[in-house]
Amino acid sequence: MTYIPTPIDAIARQQQRDVITLLFDAIDSHDENTGFDLRYRYHQDPIRDQIIEWLDQQQISWHVCGRIADTTGCSMRYRGQIYIDLPVDETNQKFCLLRDYLDYPDGKSRFKSVILLIVTLEFAMTKAHHDEPGFWEDRPDDW
After folding, report:
1. Cβ-count burial of 3 within 10 angstroms (0-12 exposed, 13-18 middle, 19+ buried)?
2. CA 50/CA 39 separation, integer angstroms
3. pLDDT at residue 5 in the model
4. pLDDT value of residue 143
5. Which range, of 4-8, 10-14, 73-77, 100-104, averages the lowest pLDDT?
6. pTM (whole model) above 0.90
7. Which of 8, 10, 90, 98 has the fewest CB within 10 Å, making it most exposed?
8. What is the mean pLDDT of the chain?
9. Nearest to 22 by CA among 123, 117, 121
10. Given phi > 0 = left and psi -120 to 50 = alpha, else beta, which region is 99?
11. Which domain holds residue 101?
12. What tens digit of pLDDT does each residue of 16-56 get?
């Protein structure tokens, strides 16, 4: 059986708050159908490594996570996304440190291959039925 990280929306429901995830992708070659570079390998991404090293240096907790849970049958393998264990709060010093590391003062990303995504608890709750016992049991393993 394949290890499937916890989807980021499930983490939001567990934490009962908005959550931060970073998505990684190569920017040089994309598949016309998926919009992603199918050759991208997160374990060979120096930008991802640099960001994780920075998070560790700043003592900002992070964990691997899955994408937003999808029940349409369109599965995507794990692509290196991580959950950043910080509240989405402009008064939180570490949140501001993260924001300023990832973005320029004008809000543009410093890293073209990185997307910072905030998953709101409100959105995550629309998928709360995924947490019901047996929900995923009738689905194929590769979903």
Report:
1. exposed
2. 20
3. 85
4. 46
5. 73-77
6. no
7. 90
8. 83
9. 117
10. alpha
11. 8-131
12. 999 999 998 765 544 454 555 556 788 889 999 999 999 99
* 70-to-16, 84, 125, 136 alpha-carbon distances in Å: 20, 21, 14, 11
Q: Domain for residue 140, yes or no?
A: no
What does the block give as tokens for 97? 């440190």
Which amino acid is present at 99? R
CB 26 within 8 A of CB 37: yes
Whole-number pLDDT of residue 124: 87
Report how far Cα 140 is from the mean position of its chain's Cα atoms.
Answer: 22
Asked if residue 45 belongs to a domain, the reply is yes
Question: How many DSSP H helices and E strands does the chain contain?
Answer: 4, 4
Q: Has residue 141 been placed in a domain? A: no
Pairing label, strands 82-84, 19-24:
antiparallel
Query: 115 φ, ψ to 5°?
Result: -120, 125
- Tell me what pLDDT residue 37 has: 55
The structural domain count of the chain equals 1
Does the residue 143 lie in any domain?
A: no
CA 42, CA 25: separation in Å to the nearest integer? 8
Q: Which amino acid is at 2?
A: T
